[in-house]
């Protein structure tokens, strides 16, 4: 008798029972519950229903139970090589362990060797969550790191693509590759409810962490709520469970002939229904086509703006009661006020379940507020990325318009980077991560999200920092949605902040993804120098001997004195890397739009030190040029009432946060 089946059974039993020591995250920010409360009873009911769904044979369970505010959402996901019965056993054991470790937190997650169990009091379906995260990293290193990394990169790329191509039942892949010295075994997995692109985004983020966390390590297990990755130099997984090509309900008949007739009848019925549905869809399409007014390509932006009001109905599920938010913010008291912008104030709040929120209350008398409000809701509600501030919901009552965001603990970037003492809290390593994080967020907006979005108001005060000082791009009130294949747009209404605006936008109203690239270049210079773009730099004792950041950086670069621009609080640490980032920043500031890189190229340059950079030319708004346009625009930026025309008035973006 072969010992293999016996050994496999022992293996499964060990995994199902080995819960002590598994990584766990208990989220205290989402609120707590008490024993026998409504939330506790809903949670117990939901988790016990998992085992009743024996018809599920693909190891993915996502259910919700109850009514708000005590509704519970849960996801149970087993690795793709785990049998359904063993999967349910492991989930039940994990639930017991998770309740012990997180006895009263409304959101918690546990990762075992072969499953993820995650529950929350908010919807966690069909969104990409990369925080909290955990890792298990081997202490053993490989002999030839370069050869190992080459093989590993190929393996992970193939695994990622194969997993992302899976359907809504499974996004998992496992395989191995050899580097001639080692055989590397790997698995990757996403929550199957994610789209293919969301799965790729999540796994890309994990893969990008490998060079900094575990370069050359024999084994690594990186864990996030929406995806996970593992590789070892030994086989740690079983053959993948094969799924049916088409998911069909289990047959109740044991008679083969009867079953065959039933299947034939089912196929015929489905075919007839599909034909009927297709005919109805075609009829509706023709009716809508006749009624739909024709628009030229140039009118696409106006068409999107006209549809904004109808689009807001799509996100009505995110609507909060005005009274709920009023109570959460202590009736919008001054003590809860944490920011002020051109279209209203920002307040800190706390919901009844303990969740902290940031509430943007748009000015009632703001003529622009309605448009920016609808724009921000319809755009931001569709965006999910770790480097973007997440919109939790909104409120509409009479003339009151509120936006409810996740609460970001550490204020905005400008609060630190321009402060004479607080800037020292951001060493170069942290500033480097902030620059990369902003780049990832912009890349997502420009290329990786379902929409192509131009932010149009990227600046230091619109980059918030979370409790780990990770950047989150905020304030989408000025953002512009592009239709598919559209590369640029025009407007007569110039909005944003002068000093961060690309020249083609500030002067001619032309904007594109390259407009955001220009703003990003300004941010890079500010982060490196700790100096605000709009503030004069005095070059000597003579107060008339003045320069501005762009021209000062360019002259220093050309004259071989680029280290002069480095913030003194950095103590010239990592000079070579800082100079490379300065080089990339100058490339983003080229006057000719075509000469600026895309954010995809920028991200590649930031993450690859072996990539050769082109030589930048003189940046736009060069102080001392014949137009002296930077000086003029900076003057307007500091005094928004000064403008040459109505269209040039600095329309401050919605939020300019105070310390939060």
TrEMBL record:
SMART domains according to UniProt: S_TKc (SM00220)
Native organism taxonomy: Eukaryota, Viridiplantae, Streptophyta, Embryophyta, Tracheophyta
Stretches assigned to coiled coil: none
Transmembrane spans: 267-288
PROSITE patterns in the record: GNK2, PROTEIN_KINASE_ATP, PROTEIN_KINASE_DOM, PROTEIN_KINASE_ST
Reactions catalysed according to its record: L-threonyl-[protein] + ATP = O-phospho-L-threonyl-[protein] + ADP + H(+); L-seryl-[protein] + ATP = O-phospho-L-seryl-[protein] + ADP + H(+)
The protein's name in its UniProt record: Cysteine-rich receptor-like protein kinase 29
Pfam families for the chain: Pkinase, Stress-antifung
Species annotation: Vicia faba (Broad bean)
């Amino acid at each position: 008798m072969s010992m293999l089946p016996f050994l496999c059974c022992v293996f499964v039993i060990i995994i199902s029972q080995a819960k002590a020591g598994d990584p766990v995250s208990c989220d205290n920010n989402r609120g707590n519950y008490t024993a026998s409360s409504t939330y506790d009873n809903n949670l117990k009911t939901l988790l016990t229903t998992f085992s009743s769904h024996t018809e599920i044979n693909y190891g993915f369970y996502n259910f919700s139970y109850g009514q708000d505010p005590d509704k519970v959402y849960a996801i149970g996901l087993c690795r793709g090589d785990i049998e359904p019965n063993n999967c349910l056993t492991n989930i039940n054991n994990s639930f017991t362990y998770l309740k012990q470790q997180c006895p009263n937190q409304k959101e918690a997650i546990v990762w075992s060797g072969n499953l993820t169990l995650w529950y929350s009091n908010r919807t966690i379906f069909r969104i990409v969550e990369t925080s909290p995260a955990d890792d298990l990293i081997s202490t053993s290193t490989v002999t030839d790191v370069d050869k190992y990394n080459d093989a590993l990169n190929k393996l992970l790329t193939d695994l990622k693509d194969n997993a992302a191509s899976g359907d809504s039942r499974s996004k998992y892949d496992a395989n191995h590759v050899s580097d001639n010295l080692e055989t590397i075994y790997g698995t990757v997995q996403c929550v199957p409810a994610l789209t293919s692109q969301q799965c790729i985004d999540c796994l890309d983020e994990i893969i990008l962490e490998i060079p900094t966390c575990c370069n050359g390590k024999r084994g690594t297990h990186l864990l996030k709520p929406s995806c996970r990755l593992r590789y070892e130099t030994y086989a740690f997984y079983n053959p993948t469970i094969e799924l049916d090509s088409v998911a069909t309900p289990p047959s109740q008949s044991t008679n083969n002939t009867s079953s065959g007739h039933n299947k034939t009848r089912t196929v015929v019925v489905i075919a007839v229904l599909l034909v009927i549905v297709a005919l109805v869809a075609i009829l509706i399409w023709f009716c809508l086509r006749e009624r739909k007014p024709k628009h030229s390509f140039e009118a696409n932006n106006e068409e999107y703006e006209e549809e904004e009001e109808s689009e807001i109905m799509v996100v009505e599920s995110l609507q909060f009661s005005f009274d709920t938010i009023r109570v959460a913010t202590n009736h919008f008291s001054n003590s809860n006020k944490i920011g002020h912008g051109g279209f209203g104030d920002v307040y800190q709040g706390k919901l009844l379940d303990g969740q902290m929120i940031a509430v943007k209350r748009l000015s009632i008398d703001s003529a622009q507020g309605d448009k920016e409000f609808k724009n921000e809701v319809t755009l931001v509600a569709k965006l999910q990325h770790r480097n973007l501030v997440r919109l939790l919901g909104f409120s509409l009552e009479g003339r009151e318009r509120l936006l409810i965001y996740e609460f970001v603990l550490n204020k905005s970037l400008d609060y630190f980077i321009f402060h004479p003492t607080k800037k020292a809290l951001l060493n170069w390593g942290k500033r480097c991560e902030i620059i990369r994080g902003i780049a990832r967020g912009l890349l997502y907006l420009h290329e990786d999200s379902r929409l192509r979005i131009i932010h149009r108001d990227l600046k230091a005060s619109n980059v918030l920092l979370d409790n780990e000082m990770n950047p989150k791009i905020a304030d989408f009130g000025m953002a512009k949605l592009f239709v598919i294949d559209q590369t640029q747009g025009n407007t007569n209404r110039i909005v944003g902040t002068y000093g961060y605006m690309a020249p083609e936008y500030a002067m001619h109203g032309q904007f594109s993804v390259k407009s955001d690239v220009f703003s990003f270049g300004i941010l890079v210079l500010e982060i490196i120098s700790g100096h605000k773009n709009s503030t004069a730099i005095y070059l000597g004792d003579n107060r008339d001997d003045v320069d501005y950041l762009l021209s000062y950086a360019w002259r220093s670069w050309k004259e071989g004195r680029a280290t002069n621009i480095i913030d003194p609080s950095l103590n010239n640490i990592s000079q070579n890397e800082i100079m490379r980032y300065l080089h990339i920043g100058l490339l983003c500031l080229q006057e000719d739009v075509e000469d600026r890189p895309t954010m995809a190229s920028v991200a590649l340059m930031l993450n690859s030190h072996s990539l050769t950079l082109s030589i930048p030319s003189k940046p736009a708004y060069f102080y001392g040029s014949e137009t002296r346009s930077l000086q003029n625009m900076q003057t307007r930026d500091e005094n928004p009432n000064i403008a040459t025309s109505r269209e040039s008035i600095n329309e401050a973006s919605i939020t300019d946060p105070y310390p939060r």
